[in-house]
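Regression test attached.
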Amino acid sequence: MDSSLAWFDAILTLTLVVVALRVLFAQDLFQAIVLFIVFGLLLSLAWCRLGAVDVALAEAAIGAGLTGALFLNTLATTRRHGDQAPPAETIDRKGAWVDDKLPTLRPRPSTPWTGRLAFGLVAGSVTAWMAAVVVPLAVSSDAPRIAIDEAMLRSGVTNPVTAVLLNFRAYDTLLEVAVLMLAVLTVSSLTAGSARVSKALPSGPVLTSFVRLILPVVVMVAVYVLWSGTKAPGGAFQAAALLGAGGVLLLVTDTQSPSCARYLRRVLLVAGLAVFLLVGLGGMLGAGRFLEYPPAWAGVLITLVETVLTVSIALVLVMLFVGTSPTGAEGSARASDETPGATPLVSRERTS
Amino acid sequence: MTPTLNYALTGVVLFSVGLSGLFFCAHLLRKILSVNMAGSGVFLVFVALARRQPDVPPDPVPQALVLTGIVVAVSATAVALALFRRLTHEPAEEPHG
Amino acid sequence: MNVLILGVAFFLLVNVVAGLVRVWRGPTALDRMLASQLFGTTGTAILLLLAEGLSNPALRDVALVFALLAPIATVVFVRRWPLSSSANGGSFHEHE
Amino acid sequence: MPVTHADACLVWPIVAPLATALAAFVLGGRWSTRLGVAVVPIVVAATAVVTWRVWHHGPQTYSLGNWPAPLGIELHADGLSCAMLLMSACIGAVVSVYSVGYFEGSTTASRGQPQKDTGAQFWPLWLMLWSALHALFLSADIFNLYVTLELLTLAAIGLVVLTGTRAAVEAALRYLLAALAGSLLYLAGVALMYGAHGTLDIASLGRSVTADASLQAALLLMMVGLMLKTALFPLHFWLPPAHGSAPAPVSALLSGLVVKGSFYILLRLWFDVFPQEFTRPLTLLPAVLGAAAILWGSMQALVADRLKMLVAYSTVAQLGYLFLVFGLARPGSDTGFAAWSAVVLFALSHACAKGALFLAAGTILHVAGHDRIRDLPAVSRRLPTTFFAIGVASVGLMGLPPTAAFVAKWTLLRVALGGGHIGLAVVIVLGGLLAAAYLFRVLAAAFTQPGVVDTNVSYRKVPRWMEYSTLGLALVSLLLGLASYPVIELLRIGSPWSPPIVQEAAP
Amino acid sequence: MSTNDLVSCVSLVLGAFFFLAGTMGMLRFPDVYTRLHALTKADNLGLGLLVFGLALQAESWLAVAKLFLVWGLVMLASTTCCHLVAQAAWQAGISPWSRRDGQ
């Protein structure tokens, strides 16, 4: 049993490294991106082997699902210029720095052997140096860690990872949600792109009915993951990633997607962070400290925060996808009005 | 070779490969991919070191940190991709637009 | 029993690594996409086996997420990739 | 433990701008400006309260969620954090006032799309940046510092691309990739430190670290990462385009405040966490690179043809001075404190002077539509206040006698000569001369009669407070010299050189 | 070894065999249309047998339900994806392989 697991680990890690190298050196970018998706799936298996199931869930949903979709989408937009689509090299030239001060190699379809040699030397020496440090750490039986057992009793939840994320280190999580907000702000300010009609495959009845069938399951599983997060692996981020992925599915099919008013969307985007802040400040008012939950209320408050966070983060993830999308048929209406306080062209003309 | 050692070493390799890729690959998309892989490498080291004692459940703190890190990474990636898209779209606008 | 389950998991991993060759070789984008789909399914199977073999039922949830999200890449791809693209590599057509 | 509400003041500099950013985002439009201005006095007051408490009661520690250090995250304020907070509050307030005028009616049309209200986008981003800065200066947890670094970077990126030009987008992408590499190196260091010592809290790390290989590796990784983020020569390649192509108030923020964030972390880790036997062999590396940065940045500034690029390269040069601290400040010795506090004082002074210069450059760009140095004489007649502000800020930047930069450089020179670092002393002097040389290129414009008055160029009107706020910031950089004694006393509180009574206050 | 375990073993081994067949097909078949067959048919059957084998070992009814839900989802997903891929291939003008033009 142990030997087959050891072999499993060996093959898995070896494949991870080979796939990573291939992502960097595969001649065409599409292959690199498909391999990157595969990399995410492999990594998710690795998290499972390390017993980090919460991380595995997030990686499966965000790493392999959403990030892959983001990359595919972006690559597709760079080839969207009609039939005179640029071959990979021209994209290279365009994509590379123009006033080239970075130590980049000449843009070529494949890295020349000198480049590979330099790459190998640098990567190899960094690996050797860091391995010399990490190996003693990894084999030492003395593993200092932060003691949480006693505090778990007052944390309001039984899943230790959720306790760390939403109670002991809730402040990290608060700032992390702010990071997501910032990403949305930046991405949506960049989205005013060209509207090009997609020449991709139309979504036929099969895709439409597939989406219709699978979306309720996605929502159901997301609710389950959120609900079980307090006592088993799962939680707000994993649930949000699932919902976000469901939203992406809805976006890329031609089905009528439930649209909501611009204002409401903005409120929903900030709701997670706002509720989190309010709960934190509430802890302060109740003769306590910022982000302190009274032990009796901890479970309820954490669930409340997680629920609102799930909705907000899911929306954020969908918006991030929209931001890297071609602003074509479904994109333009959603994306261009996203900038806060954007004034429609028409009404400006009327006033002037 | 214990799983901890195996995965921690893989993390180190991925980190170095990703970091070198960031500096040596010319194409911007590949640079963005490299950053993601280097990040995964660091996360692997984090979590692998969290389960050094096989008979004790793994330390939850690094797992929580890595979850935070994954979300930060996806935000940064989305921003980088939006910038990249803007950059590759721009020149095509002038001759055709 | 567990020996068999973990053995099968290992076998599937080897299998899927062999399947990666199709992502390598293409020749068309669709082949690569198809191979990654195979990867998703096999990954799901491996997770289900590990859940039983390591007696960690939480891994079934990961398998569930795998199963739900594996088609995302393919759907995004076919809906966003221009059909007439003549660019190499990501092309629908084999190029030499 | 009795809960005291007084130490909750540490939370407000972080929460106030963050909450306002959310409100500004939701309400949008004109409300974002109003809210942005309204929160300025609150933030300034919160900062003042924190400083007051630190001044009177010593370093303050606040356990978020009431989970004490190794388990939870703590906020920590000592003299250094307070100085940084005051710098951030001061520059933030001025930039806010300036931005009201700068972004007024600045809707940029982007390629036939509906016009974008850049101002409404500016405020949420800037308020979040402000919040991130304060979170960074107050954090006492190495992983939380990573999150604040990322928050800072993403906010900065969002601000750089506000103009939406191709140059800005390209600069932003370059900046983002460099910053991500920097934070990953830092995070790798965090992973090693947690793996070896099982804690993330700076104070407990400082107590528990032992000199071993993993710590040395962590130090190197973190140092390189943070140097990259602080744009130390030769890792500065991303800075000039980003700072040069961003909107003026943003450039002021980036040059004045954002690069100081990663420098602050390095300063803190170097003196509070890592034992001397590790840092000692490495002292010369940052110091020599700093010296090289002074020379290289100044040379580039001498040949720059645009004002904003000149100021941006000047930042590369001036950041070099900051890194001299690692070569000159020895823990334990009294000259160590002198050099350390001098460098922090220099950072404060640089932030004000550089901020003023960027704001002035922004005003010129706003009015004339260009910032070419050889065409500045034609502009100078129209903007006497702004050019006066440039003059004052230049005095602050060159380090002429009454300014804080003078006090700082003089102290550094004394310590360098006392420690036998003749080379560094020469560079300190030379850097001052070079700064004078490139700044006179700009100042000359103010005293030169325009040869040809360009009648074709239509000049835009400029709101008064844009000019006055710039001048105000420039004057602060000048007056800081007079206040340098209290600032140095403030820095002593909780510094590695302070008497050890402080440790007992926070058990 | 109980009958339960025996059936489970046989089912698992058979399932693994179908995965092997799927991979072989993926690697050996000549064009994208034929590879579709390799993927869907073998994969779904393979996963089905594995799920059946594992269901006999599962500790609770909830686990069994989850197993079959996963199987159902994978079938649904791979059916749809194969349809989409085939449609895309057809619309892009890839002609199916026939014995004449192969070798």
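Expected vs. actual: identical. Chain E has one domain: 3-91.
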